[in-house]
């Protein structure tokens, strides 16, 4: 799970002489960076889930006997899925909070 794209967003924010933070390249660039990071996370999770399923099938068919590799693949997939669900839940929580704001 590569979070470098999310960590790189801090370079888009600068502080002016009054101390207020402003975005250099605009909000669209920041949103695009966050969106690309989320899409990469989902693609990585799907890849790990597919690898775990393939490892289970290989083990069940007797092609491999390594339970160690099977457990590692399953744990990677489980961790990636839990992370993706946690990010989704935080996103939904933020969305609900924004929708409940009164203007």
Helical run tally: 3
Q: Let me know the largest β-sheet.
A: 2 strands, antiparallel
CA-atom Rg in angstroms: 20 Å
- The helix/strand class is mainly alpha
SS strand fraction: 5-15%
Provide mean pLDDT, rounded: 82
* Total individual domains: 1
Low-confidence segments, given as residue ranges, are 7-14
List keywords for this structure.
103 residues, mainly alpha, elongated, two-stranded antiparallel sheet, 69% helix, single chain
Brief summary:
The protein has 103 residues and is mostly helical.
How would you describe the overall organization of this protein?
The chain has 103 residues and is mainly α. It has one domain. Helix content is 69%, strand content 6%. It contains 3 helices and 2 strands; from the N terminus they run αββαα. The chain has a two-stranded antiparallel ribbon. Helix 2 packs antiparallel against helix 3. The two termini are 37 Å apart. About 8% of the residues have low confidence.
What is the fold's blueprint, element by element?
Layout: H1 4-7, E1 13-15, E2 21-23, H2 27-60, H3 67-99
Antiparallel strand pairs: 1-2
Helix pairs in contact: 2-3
